[in-house]
Specification:
Largest sheet: 12 strands, mixed
Oligomer: single chain
CATH architecture of the largest domain: Clam
Distance between the termini: 23 Å
Order of helices and strands: HHEHHEEEEEHHEEEEEEHEEHHEEEEH
Helix content: 25-40%
CATH superfamily of the largest domain: Lipoprotein localisation LolA/LolB/LppX
Number of strands: 18
CATH topology of the largest domain: outer membrane lipoprotein receptor (LolB), chain A
Radius of gyration: 22 Å
Number of domains: 2
Shape: globular
Strand order of the largest sheet: 7-8-9-10-11-1-2-3-4-5-6-12
CATH class of the largest domain: Mainly Beta
Number of helices: 10
Length: 409
């Protein structure tokens, strides 16, 4: 029987109700998760903030600067980072809190934790936030998200990864048999972040050194990375690199459409001294609710979308295959294709309420050889969901998504 086709025991009204329910579920989970997930991947590149001055530094080529970043042995630092993210998303109102609540509760099972990093750190996908960071090698890192009347921290110390939300007095704890596994679940060093960003440097990329700047009181070189291909929503990426340690201090991603940066993040204060050992100590406060990661499951942070980018296009293809989707194109124009096996997402008019407003503000109806669908757009990531349930998503234009869907028909 075809999907939603009625039989003797199912009325046309029942079928319509079932169709609407499935559409709402797709809209609630597929669209926001796709947009926020890829945004999170973009944020996880490297810190940055406003620069000043143009210090006089020895000349260096882009190739030399990239090599210096790769060879940098910085393993200790601490400081304050300010990050602003502007994806151009509308104000979701109650929908946003509902989605975050659902994520915190593990999809609605009521057994989640407000201190779970998977849900908490998605807050960095929008607005302006202040973070405190500390790093002492691959075994010890700490990141604290400073809020108006509370603080949220993720601490990695050896095998232990702790998440603590002071507002709710909740603690999330996970362990790993090997410290290397745990390291993947918390923010890595700035060197790691830079390596993630520079994996895009290939034949489809232009890389130059564009002068100098001062960031957090330190002299830095400005490395500019741009797509050579047309069709990408990325205008350029600018990374300010400390001239003495060659540690990235500043990251700014500007969209091809112009205007304010999509991501502007970086150090306002930084020190390369070893942080005090006590920085990474953590004991659950008295009376705190402690949630332990279930045995046999990977720590929650590892599930965060795009937290670790594949190291090459071959790795990307293998990772995509393992996750049940494929990748079309290469370089900056790569598009992920997912088969949801369901019906496409409706217009906001069919849904109504906060969710309807969200869909109307993001979606453009499109058609082509593939049929019909809806493109959900931000200033960086666009996603086409076809009426037969396929999802095409990437940092590419609407036209590029339609072209890919037509080619895949």
């Amino acid at each position: 029987m075809a999907p939603y086709e009625s039989d003797d025991s199912t009325t046309a009204a029942d079928a319509d109700e079932l169709r609407a329910a499935r559409r709402k579920k797709a809209a609630r989970y597929v669209v926001p998760v796709t947009v926020v997930g890829v945004a999170a991947a973009t944020i996880g590149l490297v810190p940055a903030i406003a620069d000043s001055g143009s210090p006089d530094l020895p000349r260096i080529s882009a190739e030399q600067l990239i090599q210096k970043i790769a060879e940098s042995d910085t393993e200790q630092l601490s400081g304050t980072v300010k990050i602003t993210t502007d994806l151009g998303l509308p104000n979701l109102g109650g929908l946003e809190s509902g989605l975050m609540s659902g994520a915190t509760q593990g999809g609605g099972d009521g057994e989640g934790s407000a201190a779970d990093p998977t849900a908490k750190l998605t807050e960095l996908a929008s607005g302006t936030h202040t973070l405190r960071v500390a790093v002492d090698g691959p075994e010890k890192q700490k990141l604290s998200l400073l809020e108006d009347a509370a603080e949220y921290s993720v601490i990695h110390n050896g095998k232990d990864v702790w998440g603590y939300d002071s507002g709710s007095n909740e603690v999330y704890h996970s362990t790993s048999a090997e410290g290397a596994d745990a390291q993947q679940d918390v923010p890595a060093t700035p060197k790691d972040f830079a390596e993630e960003a520079l994996k895009s440097v290939d034949d489809t990329t232009s890389v130059t050194v564009d002068g100098t700047a001062q960031v957090a009181g330190r002299d830095a070189y400005k490395l500019v990375v741009k797509p050579k291909q047309s069709g990408s929503t990325v205008g350029q990426i600018s990374i300010a690199v400390d001239s003495r340690t060659f540690t990235p201090l500043k990251f700014t991603l500007t969209p091809a459409s112009g205007g304010a940066a999509v991501v502007d993040a970086g150090f306002t204060k930084v020190s390369f001294d070893r942080p005090a050992a006590s920085t990474f100590d953590f004991t659950p406060p008295k009376g705190a609710k402690v949630t332990e990661e279930p045995a046999g499951e990977k720590p929650s942070g590892e599930a965060a979308p795009g937290h670790r980018a594949p190291k090459s296009e071959d790795d990307l293809a293998k990772s995509a295959e393992a996750e049940g989707f494929k990748v079309l194109g290469e370089g900056w124009n790569a598009i992920a294709v997912l088969e949801t096996g369901g019906e496409g997402v409706p217009s906001g008019g069919e849904v109504g309420g906060d969710l309807g407003g969200f869909l109307d503000s993001l979606g453009d109806q499109v058609s082509g050889k593939f049929g019909e669908g809806t493109v959900f757009k931000t200033r960086l990531i666009n996603a086409l969901i076809t009426d037969d349930g396929k999802v095409y998503v990437g940092a590419v234009t609407k036209d590029a998504l339609v072209k890919a869907a037509d080619a895949g028909k």
